[in-house]
Amino acid sequence: MASARRVIGTAGLVVVLAVGAYGTLDAYDLVPGPLTLAAPVPDPAPFPTAPGAVVGGAPTPALSTLAPDAAQPQAAAVQAAVGSLLADSRVGSSVGVAVLDQLTGDVLGSAQPDAGRTPASTAKLVTAVGALGTLDPARTLSTWAVRQGDLVVLVGGGDVMLGEGAGDPTAVDGRAGLGDLAAQTASALTLAGVSTVRLGFDDSMFTGPTTSPGWDPGYLTSGFVAPVTPLEVHIGKYDASTEYGRRYTDPSLAAARVFAQRLTELGITVTGTPTRTTAPGDALPLGEVRSAPLRDVVGYFLDTSDNTVTEAVSRLVAIDQGLPPSFDGATAAVLHAVSTLGVDVAGAHLTDASGLASGSSLSPMLLAGIVRAATSPDHPTLRSVVAELPIAGLTGTLDDRFTSSAARGLVRAKTGSLPNVTSLAGTLVDADGRALVFVVMADATPDGGQDPPRRAIDGFVSGLAGCGCR
User: Fold this and answer.
1) Among 110, 121, 314, 326, which one carries the catalytic annotation?
2) pTM of the entire structure?
3) 114 and 231, same structural domain?
4) Is 93 in the active site?
């Protein structure tokens, strides 16, 4: 084989969304408890039968199509709401806002919309749109085993969500399993009459440091991110059942040890300790497993806001553009990819692709442009970005927000949270049926945690959704 580092494309499902809208596993995004003060909205009663399930009749769509002639809210009313948000002490003294009509792009309300601010995990929108706007959404990532003599090499192809045992075809994290790869490898070795091997692992697909100097060391020890390598089991976690928790300092070595254990269980003797190496170009292939499609991987990091997965995807964009698959190459690549969609990235800077590092700067208008691009019919491959954004009060990093707001279920947005930083970027449908794009970035919030600024921002967004300010 010419090279052991390659990415395999497979066919995938096309995701279609009736209503467009938007949205870290950054360190502080999951604060439990409701974030609005109104009385809780009761859960709807279940239907005895599915809507539209009438014999001989056409099914009723789950969501009606938005009318393009729905009334646009008055800019004066939206700007007044922006002014009230700016006056709220809970968001602090540095706030950027952009509210646009999703269809026309008209700016309905703003506050310093072109000034750069710390994005936190709203930066993941850049990586998501940059990836699906330039790469094949159906692409899968391969992990291989190859052999030369008595040396078997486990080769990482960018999948950081390998399973320890059999792959789960219904999962994103664990779609490809090292148990399956070991079974293929053991079978091929047995046919060749080989029962004892040395094991190496090749994680040379990514380059540069595996951690960003802009990450607080506590993020690694607390489990908010793992070192970024192209070969990881369950995102480098010791315990895959936990969202946070201890991560391996060398995820590639940890994956190789899992693979060695699976081979041993299948009767193959693995001598010594797995060693880091580069797979020989003429090595014989033994087996291969493939990840979930890229669109699902992107959806996973948008919903969970996982930093490690985001960083891995950004490196695929860098490789596609011929740039180094490192922090510097990946951040340059995703910004360039977004610019090819017509989004102005002048003045933008990313220290990492996930928004976890200090030093990044994006403007509200840049994020709003990304949201509009993803909802545009001109970019159908981006619709899965919209589909996978957290839904207010229901899914992902918004599951415990807007729970007592009438905007529950009407807002899709990407969260962003760091110490003294709270941001939210997405779309909503207002009371008149008009789709709006909104971005709020507050990067000097008072000490005291995420709850107060989130309540203020959620109240502002809820007001936009309920306005009907024709």
Assistant:
1) 121
2) 0.85
3) no
4) no
